[in-house]
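#lab-general

N.A. 3:47 PM
ok so I finally got the sequence cleaned up, no stray characters, all 189 residues accounted for. can someone with queue access submit it? mine expired

B.Y. 3:52 PM
send it over

N.A. 3:53 PM
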Amino acid sequence: MRYVIVDLEATCWESGHSRDQMEIIEIGAVLLPSAADKPSDEFARFIRPAIEPTLSDFCKNLTSIAQTDVDNADTFPTVFDDFLKWIGADQYVLCSWGAYDLNQFRLDCQRHGIPFPDQFERHINLKKEFASLFNVKPCGMATALKRVGIPLKGTHHRGIDDARNIASLARLILPQIEYSRKVDATCQS
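B.Y. 4:20 PM
back already:
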């Protein structure tokens, strides 16, 4: 099974805005050909926000995404279409660190009148799986990396860098999930 490890960055503010106002401004994704394989491909694109096109200072500081990055980017419908083409037609499972990314995709698809891909419903919440596998409370990606002795690489809160780091964790988690599913299937036979 192929796995698409995704991390999104979205418009954000220190306070005073609702979650519904957030829009994706970066899609970072890494493709794992199988649970234990090294990444074989990457997708990294900025997105020009439509509701509030000017990024807050808080957002720019948190993500290190510059206003010019999003000003020169395509809109969500174009980038999302390119993302789905990059993934391709073969079966895959979408994975992210927590449920935020899946929910933000759902919100942005709805906002732009784009059908939400059925394949996304097979989503694996790697944060939840990590907590279960290592018998710890759910934690942030940087904390999880530290727990297993993997150094954080790149810039935290940049979509592509976080996707790469999450992929390192996924290569520990996904083989365990596949193994437990095989055992469960064998026990039910």
